[in-house]
C-alpha cells in the first residue's frame, strides 16, 4: 500500500504558527513583517479569490484544500462546495469538522463523478504534473466551466534551487490556449506575496542566531565532536542552505512569478 501523504511543513504552519491558510497571502506594502500581518494578508488573498467566483457558479471543487479555510468560505457563500486533498492529516481533521463531500486522493487519481461549475487550485497546481493537471481539469469541468487558480510559476530564466518548484509560466499559458481556455482575469501578484518570504527569512535568521548562542559553549568545549557532527550532517546542512535560498524574495522575483488566473472553457 502507498504511504499516505503527511506534509510536515504544512502541519508546522497550521499547528505551530497557527495559520489558517497555507498560501503566501496578499500583502499591503510598508507593513511590519509579523505573523499577525501575514494572517491579514492571507485573509486578503482569500477575499480576492472569493470576489473572482462568477455569480452563476453553484458547484465547486477545491483541489488541495489545505486547512479547509477557503472550502468553508465557499460553503458559507452558499455554494455546493467539495474539496480534495491527498494529505492524511488534512483528511482526518476536515472530515471530522466539515460535513460536505471530501475526496481523499491526489488530483491525478481523482475520478470525478460529476462536472463542476468551477475548480479552484490555490497554491496546489504546482504539485500536479502538467499533463495530468490539464487532463483532469478538463474532465472535472462542465462545458463553459471556470478554472480559478493562484500559484507561483517559474520564469524561462529560472535556475538552481528556484527552478525546482512551480510550472514554467509560458509553458502553462501555452497549454491554457491549447486546451481551449479563455483568460478572463490575469493578475501578477508577485510583489504582494514576497513579504511572506521576508518574514520567513527573519524567523529563520532569529532561530539560527538563538541556536548559535545556545551551542556556543558546547562548540568551544568539544571542537572535535563539533567537526564530526558537521561532517555527518553535511547533507542536511546543505539542504538547510538551499531552504534559506528559497526564502530570498529578490531571487524569487527574478526567477518566479506569482499569478492569479480566472480561466473559462471556450466550449
Ligand atoms: C500549499 S498548500 C495550499 C492549501 C490551500 N489551498 C491554501 O491555499 O491554503 C498545498 C495543498 O495541495 C495539496 N496537494 C499536494 N499534492 C497534491 C496532489 N497531487 N493533488 C491534490 N492536492 C495536492 C496539499 O496537501 C495541500 O492541501
Structure description:
By secondary structure, this protein is α/β, with parallel strands linked by helices. It has 2 domains: 203 residues, Rossmann fold (3-Layer(aba) Sandwich); 46 residues, no CATH class. Helices cover 47% and strands 20% of the residues. Strands 1, 2, 3, 4, 5, 6, 7 and 8 form an 8-stranded mixed sheet that branches. The protein is globular. The mean pLDDT is 88. S-adenosylmethionine binds next to loops.
Entry keywords:
alpha/beta; 2 domains; 8-stranded mixed sheet; binds S-adenosylmethionine
> Span between N and C termini?
39 Å
Radius of gyration: 20 Å
Specify the CATH homologous superfamily of the largest domain: Vaccinia Virus protein VP39
- Treating each run of at least 4 consecutive H or I residues as one helix, how many helices? 11
What is the element string, with H for helices and E for strands? HHEHEHEEHEEHEHHHHHE
Helix content estimate: 40-55%
The CATH topology of the largest domain is what?
Rossmann fold
| Strand residue content | 15-25%
Under the CATH scheme, the architecture of the largest domain is 3-Layer(aba) Sandwich
Q: Which compounds are bound in this model?
A: S-adenosylmethionine
- What count of domains describes the coordinates? 2
Amino acid at each position: 500500500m502507498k504511504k499516505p501523504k503527511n506534509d510536515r511543513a504544512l502541519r508546522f504552519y497550521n499547528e505551530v504558527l497557527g495559520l489558517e491558510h497555507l498560501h503566501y497571502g496578499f500583502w499591503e506594502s510598508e507593513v511590519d513583517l509579523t505573523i499577525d500581518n501575514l494572517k491579514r494578508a492571507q485573509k486578503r488573498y482569500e477575499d480576492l479569490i472569493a470576489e473572482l467566483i462568477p455569480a452563476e457558479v453553484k458547484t465547486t471543487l477545491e483541489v488541495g484544500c489545505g486547512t479547509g479555510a477557503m472550502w468553508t468560505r465557499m460553503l458559507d457563500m452558499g455554494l455546493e462546495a467539495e474539496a480534495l486533498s491527498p494529505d492524511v492529516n488534512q483528511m482526518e481533521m476536515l472530515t471530522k469538522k466539515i460535513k460536505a463531500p471530501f475526496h481523499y486522493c491526489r488530483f491525478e487519481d481523482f475520478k470525478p463523478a460529476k462536472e463542476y461549475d468551477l475548480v479552484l487550485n490555490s497554491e496546489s497546481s504546482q504539485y500536479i504534473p502538467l499533463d495530468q493537471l490539464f487532463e483532469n481539469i478538463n474532465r472535472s469541468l462542465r462545458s463553459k466551466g471556470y478554472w480559478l487558480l493562484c500559484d507561483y510559476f517559474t520564469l524561462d530564466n529560472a535556475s538552481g534551487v528556484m527552478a525546482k518548484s512551480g510550472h514554467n509560466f509560458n509553458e502553462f499559458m501555452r497549454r491554457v490556449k491549447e486546451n481551449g481556455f479563455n483568460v478572463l482575469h490575469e493578475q501578477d501578484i508577485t510583489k504582494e506575496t514576497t513579504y511572506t518570504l521576508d518574514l520567513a527569512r527573519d524567523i529563520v535568521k532569529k532561530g539560527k542566531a538563538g541556536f548559535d548562542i545556545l551551542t556556543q559553549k558546547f562548540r568551544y568545549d568539544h571542537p572535535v565532536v563539533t567537526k564530526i557532527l558537521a561532517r555527518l550532517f553535511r547533507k542536511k546542512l546543505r539542504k538547510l542552505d538551499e531552504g534559506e535560498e528559497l526564502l530570498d524574495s529578490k531571487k524569487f522575483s527574478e526567477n518566479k512569478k506569482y499569478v492569479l488566473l480566472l480561466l473559462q472553457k471556450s466550449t
